[in-house]
Specification:
By secondary structure, the protein is of the alpha+beta class. The chain has two domains: 3-147, Fructose-1,6-Bisphosphatase, Chain A, domain 1 (2-Layer Sandwich), CATH 3.30.540; 156-265, D-Maltodextrin-Binding Protein, domain 2 (3-Layer(aba) Sandwich). Helix content is 32%, strand content 26%. It has helices at 8-31, 50-66, 97-102, 177-184, 196-205, 218-230, 258-265; strands at residues 38-40, 47-49, 71-74, 87-95, 108-115, 118-126, 131-136, 141-143, 146-147, 160-162, 189-191, 210-216, 234-236, 248-253. The chain has a seven-stranded mixed beta sheet, sandwiched between helices. Strand 5 and strand 6 form a beta hairpin. Helix 1 (8-31) packs antiparallel against helix 2 (50-66) and helix 5 (196-205) runs parallel beside helix 6 (218-230). The protein starts with 7 loop residues before the first helix and ends with a helix.
Length: 268
C-alpha cells in the first residue's frame, strides 16, 4: 500500500494500529508455550490469560495517550466507549485465547477502527508467522506489500471453508452443529481453527473460499470484515443481509459462493 496516498488521519490511525499490533504480538511470542495464568469467563471453555490482559493494557494505554478523544471497545473491558467520539477502536488483544493457552499456533491481534460508525481501518497480525494483514476503506486489503484478492473458486464442492462454535455450545440449541454437518458433506474441506480474525483474513487472502460463524462479538469481526470487503469479497448475516457492526451472525466469502453458503447455513 502506498500510504502517501492516504489522507493524513487514515494514515496516522493505520500506522498506530500496526505499531500496537506488532508490540502486542511481541508479547504473545515471548510468552508463547511458557507458564501463564489461565482463567475462565462466561463458560468453562471461555478462557482469558494474563497475556490477553497485558496486550490489551498496552494497546489501550497507547491509544489513550496518543488519541485521548477516541472511543475504545476492547474484549477484556479496557478503555471507554465515548458515544460522542467520531473514532472508535474495536480491539481483540489476543484472538484465539484457547489456542494460545494450549500452545496451538493459531492466534493473532485484531484491531478495527471505525469513523462515524463505519470501519475505516483494519489490522490483523499473526505474530508466529509474522504476517500483517491490513486494510483501509477504499485502498484495498494487503499482506505486507502484496495486495490481497479473494479466491476465484465458483464450485462449492471444491471449496475450502472455515467456521467456529460459540462458548455456550454445551447449553444452547443454536450451536452451529447442524449447519456444520450440512456444509461438511458439500465442500472439499471444512476447518475450525479457533480464530475468527484469522479466518476472515484468510478469506481476504484467498486461502479460504468462505467462513461463517454465529454469536460473534464486534472485536472478532471488525478488522477482518473490512479485509474481506476490500479484497473483493462479501460479508453478510446468515440471511444475506448486511452484517451488523455488533457481530452476531457472520457469513463471508469470495462472493461467488455466497448465496450457496447461505442456503446451507440459514435457519432451515
Amino acid at each position: 500500500m502506498d500510504k502517501s496516498k492516504l489522507n493524513p488521519e487514515d494514515r496516522s490511525v493505520l500506522e498506530l494500529a500496526q505499531t500496537l499490533a506488532l508490540q502486542a504480538g511481541e508479547i504473545q511470542r515471548d510468552r508463547y508455550e511458557t507458564e501463564i495464568e489461565v482463567r475462565t469467563k462466561s463458560a468453562e471453555i471461555d478462557l482469558v490469560t494474563e497475556v490477553d490482559h497485558a496486550c490489551e493494557a498496552l494497546i489501550v494505554s497507547a491509544i489513550e495517550a496518543d488519541r485521548p478523544q477516541d472511543a475504545i471497545v476492547a474484549e477484556e473491558g479496557g478503555g471507554e466507549d465515548h458515544s460522542d467520539s467520531d473514532w472508535r477502536w474495536v480491539i481483540d488483544p489476543l484472538d484465539g485465547t484457547t489456542n494460545y493457552a494450549h500452545g496451538f499456533p493459531r492466534f493473532c491481534v485484531s484491531i478495527g477502527v471505525e469513523f462515524k460508525n463505519e470501519t475505516r481501518v483494519g489490522v490483523v497480525y499473526d505474530p508466529l508467522l509474522d504476517e500483517m494483514f491490513y486494510a483501509v476503506r477504499g485502498a484495498g486489503a494487503w499482506l505486507g506489500e502484496r495486495r490481497l484478492h479473494v479466491s476465484k473458486t465458483d464450485d462449492f464442492g471444491r471449496a475450502l471453508i472455515a467456521t467456529g462454535f460459540s462458548y455456550d455450545i454445551r447449553k444452547s440449541g443454536n450451536d452451529n452443529v447442524e449447519r456444520f454437518s450440512r456444509v461438511l458433506k458439500a465442500v472439499r474441506g471444512l476447518r475450525r481453527d479457533g480464530s475468527a480474525a484469522l479466518d476472515l483474513s484468510y478469506v481476504a487472502a484467498g486461502r479460504l473460499d468462505a467462513y461463517w460463524e454465529l454469536k460473534l462479538q464486534p472485536w472478532d469481526v471488525s478488522a477482518g470484515s473490512l479485509l474481506v470487503e476490500e479484497a473483493g469479497g462479501r460479508v453478510s448475516d446468515c440471511e444475506g443481509n448486511p452484517a451488523p457492526r455488533s457481530g452476531g451472525e457472520v457469513v463471508s466469502s469470495n462472493q461467488r459462493l455466497h448465496e450457496t453458503l447461505i442456503s446451507y447455513v440459514k435457519d432451515q
